[in-house]
Amino acid sequence: MAEKKYETVRELIFYSYANLAMAHSAIDKKQEKYAMVNYMIRAKLFKGLKDGTMNMKSIFDDEKIKLKTGTI
Fold first, then answer.
1. Domain extents for the chain?
2. Which superkingdom is the protein from (predicted)?
3. pLDDT (tens digit per residue) in 13-63
4. Environment class of residue 45 by beta-carbon count within 10 Å: exposed (0-12), middle (13-18) or buried (19+)?
């Protein structure tokens, strides 16, 4: 498959964030391979980030959870 070209750095960041969400969903479900639902998550999130209907979560939110639960 040909490498995707992004018009802006913003699009590249959105795509990277959507990839992380896809991986996170697969890990949560203890999948060994990506399934169709994982690709759907990535596509929907990427589209939502691009058109402004979705937002990225703050890294600070994740760090607060780690501090409260004592996990690293």
1. 9-69
2. Bacteria
3. 999 999 999 999 999 999 999 999 999 999 999 999 999 999 998 888 878
4. buried
